[in-house]
Amino acid sequence: MTIDLNAAFESGLQYFGKMTASISHEIKNVLAIINENAGLMEDLVLMANKGRPLEPERLTTLAGKIISQIQRADGIILNMNTFAHSVDEFQKRIDITETLTLVVSLSNRFASMRGVAVELAPIHNPIRINTNQFLLENIVWLCLDYAMDEAGHGKRVVLNAEKVDNAIAIRFAMPEGVTGDFSRIFPGKREEALVEILAGDLSTHRDRGEIVLTLPTEIKN
Amino acid sequence: MKTRILLVDDEEDFVQVLSERLKIRDYNVDTSFSGEDALAKVKNHDFDVVILDVAMPGMNGITALREIKAVKPLTEVIMLTGKATVDTAIEGMKLGAYDYVLKPCDTEKLSADINKAHQRKTEHEDRIREAKVRDILVSRGV
């Protein structure tokens, strides 16, 4: 079977664009909050100049809110940086927990917009695999995106990973069942192309509300 | 009478601080953290201007705008967007929004927009009132 490289290439670009647009939106929100807190400090100082007493505790609270937003922005930028570097090497040894944590973090805004809670089940023993990090992130996102649609508003999608012999299984479980419309074809061309490049397998189990992505621990060139 | 504003955004910290800044500027401000709650408030209260975030979980800003205009067509809506693109905001203006403001916003510009939007609402209300008076006078043969 020939790998549809165009589908994989298109999928990668779309994923990168979608995530960076979401990140920039998040950063804009953080900047807006910092902007308003700094503006309110300025308002309070202007009012103090006109004789209204300035409460130091109020300024401390506002400064605290600014610091908290800077920490939030720092987390967003750290994720953005890790995500950007995932295209550095075609193949490398990666930690599955770290990768899933990153994909879930990047997906939080999309989950929140759909009213879906995404959870990552604890992975007790570290699982490391040799694969293409960016393509893995892409296929995990596509599975998660589909699972969120299937789960529907107010429901959960729980991710977990386990090592099975020379492979790993990443499960996207919808414990409250599936309620979404099933209008999308899944797996589609993009998912099939990515799974093929990663030498994996993707199966959907609507009866038990689960999508299972299986990948080898060592991908061959 | 103070301009009555409903500020709608799912970023609670943003809403709390901006509403305080608008109150300092002598506006009467109510707040909502979702499109659904905003719509319920618009149905039950009279606001002059609604400042509405475009991207919110649940009912998004565009749907909320459509619903607000359906129940209170004279209420002016200023769209608030964190996106650098203006496509969604322009879509909002096609649906009747007065204007759009990009985040982070300049509070003085926002304040000027609120005043202009309120002015437009007042002019619309005056025209409707005058038309009603004219109709009454015509019906009485005056």
From TrEMBL, chain A:
> Which InterPro entries does this UniProt record tie to the protein?
HisK_dim/P_dom, HisK_dim/P_sf
Report which reactions are catalysed by this protein. Answer: ATP + protein L-histidine = ADP + protein N-phospho-L-histidine
Q: Which GO terms describe its molecular function?
A: phosphorelay sensor kinase activity
Stated EC number for the protein is 2.7.13.3
- SUPFAM superfamilies recorded for this chain? Homodimeric domain of signal transducing histidine kinase (SSF47384)
Q: Mind telling me what this protein is named?
A: histidine kinase
Automatic annotation (TrEMBL), chain B:
Q: Which residues form a coiled coil?
A: 107-134
An example GO biological process term is:
regulation of DNA-templated transcription
Q: Which InterPro entries match?
A: CheY-like_superfamily, Sig_transdc_resp-reg_receiver, WalR-like
For this UniProt entry, what's an example GO CC term?
A: protein-DNA complex
- Residues modified as 4-aspartylphosphate: D53
GO MF terms listed in the record are: phosphorelay response regulator activity; transcription cis-regulatory region binding
Q: Cite the Response regulatory domain residue spans from the record.
A: 4-118
What keywords tag this UniProt record? Coiled coil, DNA-binding, Phosphoprotein, Two-component regulatory system
**Name of the protein in question:** Response regulator with CheY-like receiver, AAA-type ATPase, and DNA-binding domains
